[in-house]
Design goal:
single chain; about 375 residues; mainly alpha; Amino acid/polyamine transporter I; 17 helices; about 0% strand; globular
Length: about 375
C-alpha cells in the first residue's frame, strides 16, 4: 500500500511540475482560435503537448534516469550543448520568467495596482527559498498542492461545461485548427521539461522504493508518468473546451488573463481570488522545480562545490526576475521562433532513441539534418 501511495504522490508531482505557466494559457488559446473545431485543436495539442512529453519521460527512463546519456545519442557536441540550451530555455531565459508573468496575471485581475516588477520580486524570493528544500518540494507538490489544484480546476471546467453557450463561428478551418494546436503544443516546452523531470523522479523512486532491477525500476517509474500524463490530458481537454465556448468573453484579452476572465464569469468575482491563488501556486511549483534543476545543472557543468549552490541559485533567480519584466507577450515573441527551429530535431531524437537503439551515426546525421532543415524552413 505504501508503494502505491508513493506512485500516486509522484504522479501528482509530475502533473504539478508540468502544469505551470504555458499550460494555463495555451490550451485556452487553442480553443479560442479553433471555435467549433476545438476537438481538432485539442488533437494537435495532444500530440505535441501530451504524447511527446510522455515519450520524453519514457526515453529518460530507458537511459536509467540520465538525460546526458540521452543527449549523447546526437553526438559529443550535442551532449554538452543540448542540456545547456534546453535548461536555459526552461530556466531563467524562458519558462520560469513566463511562470512569473502568468502568476501575476492571476493576481492582477483582482489587484490591478500590483505591478509586474513588484510581484516578480516577491515571487522570486519565495522561489529561491523553496528551491533550497528539494525533497520538501516534491512531497508538498504531490501530497497537497496538486489535489487542491485539480479540485479547483475540475469545478471550473464542470461549471464551464454545464453553462456553455453556443459556439461562435471559428476563425480557423479544420486543418488550420489541428495545425494551430500542434504548433502551440511546442510553446509550453513540456518535451524539454520531461527529460529533466523524469531524471528527478526516476532517481527518487529508485532510492525511495529501494529497487535494484532495471526492469522493475522502469516499470515503477512509468506508473507516475502515466498518471501525470492522464491528468494533464484531462485538464487540457477541459481548457480547450472552455477557450472555444467562451470566446465571446476573451476576445482581445491578454493571454495571461483568459483564465481569470472565464473564472470570474462562471464563479463570480469572489471565487476569482481562489483561482488567482491557485494560478500563483501552480506557476510557483513549476518555477521552483525548473529553477532548482537549472541551478544544480550549472553547478555540475562548472564543477562547483556544494557550498556554491546558493550563489548559483541566486544568480538564476535574479536572471528570471530580469527576463520576467519583458511580460508574457515579449517572452513568447522570443521563444516562438527558437522552438520552431529546435523542437522538430529534439522530437526526432526522442523517437530515434526509443525505436532505433543502434546506429548512432544514423541518429547523429538525422538529428543535424532535421535541425538544418528546420532552420532553413524558418529563414526562407
Amino acid at each position: 500500500m505504501k508503494r502505491y501511495t508513493h506512485i500516486f504522490i509522484y504522479g501528482f508531482a509530475i502533473f504539478s511540475m508540468f502544469f505551470g505557466s504555458g499550460n494555463l494559457v495555451f490550451p485556452l488559446q487553442i480553443g479560442q482560435n479553433s471555435g467549433k473545431y476545438w476537438l481538432l485543436g485539442f488533437l494537435g495539442l495532444f500530440i505535441t503537448g501530451i504524447l511527446l512529453p510522455f515519450l520524453g519521460l519514457f526515453v529518460i527512463k530507458l537511459h536509467r534516469g540520465s538525460y546526458n546519456a540521452f543527449f549523447a545519442e546526437a553526438g559529443s557536441l550535442a551532449r554538452f550543448i543540448l542540456p545547456l540550451f534546453t535548461l536555459s530555455l526552461l530556466g531563467s531565459f524562458g519558462v520560469v520568467p513566463r511562470c512569473i508573468t502568468v502568476a501575476h496575471g492571476g493576481i492582477e485581475y483582482i489587484f490591478p495596482e500590483i505591478s509586474l516588477g513588484i510581484f516578480s520580486f516577491f515571487f522570486c524570493i519565495a522561489c529561491f527559498f523553496i528551491c533550497i528544500k528539494e525533497h520538501f518540494m516534491i512531497t508538498v507538490l504531490g501530497k497537497w498542492m496538486t489535489p487542491l489544484l485539480l479540485a479547483c480546476l475540475t469545478v471550473l471546467i464542470w461549471l464551464g461545461i454545464t453553462h456553455a453557450p453556443l459556439l461562435t463561428a471559428p476563425s480557423l478551418t479544420p486543418v488550420q485548427a489541428f495545425h494551430n494546436g500542434f504548433l502551440i503544443g511546442y510553446l509550453p516546452m513540456d518535451l524539454f521539461a520531461a527529460f529533466f523531470f523524469s531524471a528527478l523522479i526516476f532517481n527518487q523512486i529508485q532510492s525511495k522504493l529501494r529497487i535494484t532491477s532495471d526492469k522493475d525500476v522502469l516499470k515503477e517509474a512509468l506508473k507516475p508518468s502515466l498518471i501525470g500524463s492522464f491528468l494533464l490530458g484531462l485538464i487540457y481537454l477541459g481548457f480547450v473546451y472552455l477557450g472555444a465556448h467562451y470566446q465571446f468573453l476573451t476576445a482581445g484579452v491578454s493571454p495571461e488573463l483568459i483564465l481569470p476572465t472565464i473564472a470570474s464569469y462562471l464563479m463570480g468575482r469572489n471565487a476569482v481570488f481562489l483561482i488567482g491563488v491557485i494560478v500563483v501556486f501552480s506557476c510557483l511549483t513549476t518555477a521552483v522545480a525548473l529553477n532548482n534543476i537549472y541551478a544544480h545543472y550549472l553547478c555540475s557543468l562548472f564543477n562547483l562545490k556544494k557550498d556554491k549552490f546558493l550563489w548559483v541559485l541566486f544568480l538564476t533567480t535574479a536572471l528570471s526576475f530580469t527576463v520576467s519584466l519583458m511580460d508574457f507577450r515579449g517572452i513568447a515573441a522570443i521563444l516562438g521562433p527558437i522552438l520552431e527551429v529546435s523542437y522538430p530535431s529534439i522530437i526526432l531524437l526522442t523517437l530515434l532513441s526509443i525505436f532505433l537503439k543502434d546506429n548512432k551515426k544514423v541518429k547523429i546525421g538525422l538529428f543535424y539534418g532535421m535541425l538544418i532543415l528546420s532552420l532553413a524552413w524558418n529563414l526562407f
